Amino acid sequence: MPFAGLFDREVLFFGGKGGVGKTTCAAATALAASRIGRKVLLVSTDPAHSTSDIFERPIGPEPVPLLPSLWGLEIDAATESARYVTEVKDRVRELFGHSILKEAYKQIDLAASMPGAEEVALFDRMGGLIRGEDTRFDLVVFDTAPTGHTLRLVRMPELMDAWIKALTHSRRAMLGIEGDAANDPILTSLRDRFDRLQTLRARLMSGRTTAFVLVLIPERLPIEETARAAAQLDETGVKIGGLVVNRVLPSETTDAFLQARRQQEQIYLDEIATRFASRPRVYLPQFPRDVYGLASLGPVADALAAAAGVSR
């Protein structure tokens, strides 16, 4: 059982190079978990959302029921950025007088147009889900954007932590105090955000709570990207739950073309076994048709559930 314990987590990330089947594997895992009684939210953070296509129904920026015990959510960075700006303006309105609101709003809008602002807003929404603030769900499965984007989001708590500490230091210096000022609303807001980041970091780093599953296919570029991602996740401290080696060709065939492709693929499969020997791995076959709809998603869900040692 290479994925033993995977379904016991509260947060699962699926990542990898574009086009290797992350969405299929994330959706299949969410489906399998919902079948054993977990209340699952499947979240897509990839700008090229495909979860709606797989489940053949619209999924938007708020959780929608897909099946008993399974909900779907597609996070749009632009929508989250607009929501984030509105929330910040509401907080500023509570903290400051009307005399400086116009200038404050101008600065907020300017910051919102800067590079990276949408990622911060996206991360803020993800952070709430990772912390378990929506109590309807006991498992959140993230179908993430390609690996590089995902790793930036994973590292965002550390970056924002340093930023909040710097702001807190500046605010204290301006007020001429050494410690916290309980009656200062800005320091209170910064302290609350710092506490939320600490909780988020703890959950991301907890192997009991969170795991990252890397999806690849037996080809050169996905193998190299997976190796880089695994090294970076290890460095970050996020637990790797395992690897899904997707779209493996059948070993027995009389077709000359498929035989040649399978021989080439075997070289890559051997390399995967060597380079990722310490990682739990599960191998999924190349299915004869695209995975589209519940009928075709079911066998993938069954295979991943079997690898995790669970059955419905």
User: Strand order, biggest sheet?
Assistant: 3-4-2-5-1-6-7-8
Helix content: 40-55%
Structural class: alpha/beta
**N-to-C order of helices and strands:** EHEHEEHHHEHHEHEHEH
Our estimate of the beta-strand percent is 5-15%
How much is the average pLDDT?
85
**How many whole angstroms does the radius of gyration measure?**
22 Å
> Runs with pLDDT <50, length 5+?
none
Q: What distance lies between the first and last C-alpha atoms, to the nearest angstrom?
A: 16 Å
What characterizes the major β-sheet? 8 strands, mixed
Number of DSSP strands?
8
Shape label: elongated
- Number of discrete helical segments: 10
Q: How would you summarize what this structure contains?
A:
With 312 residues, this protein is of the alpha/beta class.
Task: Please describe the structure with a list of short key phrases separated by commas or semicolons.
312 residues; alpha/beta; 8-stranded mixed beta sheet; 10 helices; 53% helix
Could you explain the architecture of this structure?
- The protein contains 10 helices and 8 strands.
- It has helices at residues 22-35, 51-55, 77-95, 101-112, 117-130, 147-175, 185-205, 220-236, 256-275, 294-308; strands at residues 11-15, 40-44, 64-67, 70-74, 139-143, 210-216, 240-248, 281-285.
- It is elongated and about 80 Å long.
- The protein is an alpha/beta fold.
- The relative contact order is 0.18.
- Helix 3 (77-95) packs antiparallel against helix 4 and helix 6 packs antiparallel against helix 7 (185-205).
